[in-house]
Amino acid sequence: MKLDDKERLAYRVGALLYTPAFQAGIAEKMKNRSFPYLTSMAFCLEDSICDEALGKAEAELRKTLFAISESIIEQLPLLFVRIRTPEHLTHVHQFLGEAAKILTGYILPKFDPSNAYAYAETVEKLNRDAGRPIYVMPILESRPLADIETRTAALRSIREVLDSIHKYVLNVRVGGNDFSNLYGLRRGVHQNIYQIGVIRDILMDIINVFAADYVVSGPVWEYFGDDPSAPWADGLRAELALDRLNGFTGKTAIHPCQLPVIYESMQVSQADYDDAMNILGWKPVISGVAKSADGSRMNEVKCHRKWARRIAALAEAYGIRDEQMKTENAGSTQRK
Q1: For 182-199, what is the mean pLDDT?
Q2: 189-196 contacts: CB < 8 A, separation 24 or more?
């Protein structure tokens, strides 16, 4: 199966690790491979930075990007900057100058009908001037998308705008905590976002509108720790399984310890991979239905082709899951 560059990048985002833009030493940590399983990183200039410190954070970010570009780093992760507004996007890109050349693109927070057209115009201008693709990832997280009275119209409006710049939209992201905050809600470590009914409904409507034609990334999991067998990790794995089932691909990470858990969830099973390859290589014969490679389920070429393409893209980016090792690790954990 042939993937275009944008499709490869969309699936390579995987676990997007957030860090405040003023964070020093990132280049050295990348060089020393201090972040195992890091596939993408976001330097935040929005919520994590006080207004009074924004200028200093922008200056530190420019230093960081230059340091990264000057370091010898194997397999550089996809790098993004989370800006504040369409006007801020223009300012930051100009301010970074040559340092912006190693960026994959920008993250557009609180993307809704009030700013969508301004964002789209800015993105188109940046791409015209840059001579290379500058990708964006809008975040859907504001009240017009949560309120049931405005949600449908808002989502349709956003979809129309994103379709106009489709070739530059790498992911559509969702702000699970932002939506929860509107209602004063928060999931516990033994719960998942889909158990909060009002938030589940918002997320499902977003999937309904966007997932057929865009990669939609799952909401952040706010728990972390040192022990990968502790409740924080079990809860993350459980929510990742529900993310996949409901159409989300990848997840925002707030701590490096979450990266290997998310990375593993992006890997595909051998059975899924075998079936995907069979479906994508289907010969034009009379029957469009056949048993799976292991004989356990039915494959239907017309119904499962989009699924197969997604599995193939994930396998190319993350590989095939070692089910035997996973079983052995689970058994070891149970014996402790």
Answers
A1: 98
A2: 189/223, 189/231, 189/232, 189/235, 190/231, 190/235, 191/235, 192/235, 192/238, 192/239, 192/242, 193/219, 193/239, 193/242, 194/239, 194/242, 194/246
Residue 82 · residue 58 · CB < 8 Å: no
pLDDT digits (tens, 9 = 90+) for 20-60: 999 889 999 998 889 989 999 999 999 899 999 999 999 99
| Structure-token pair, residue 67 | 């340091």
The predicted-structure confidence for 221-257, as pLDDT tens digits, reads as follows 999 999 999 999 999 999 999 999 999 999 999 999 9
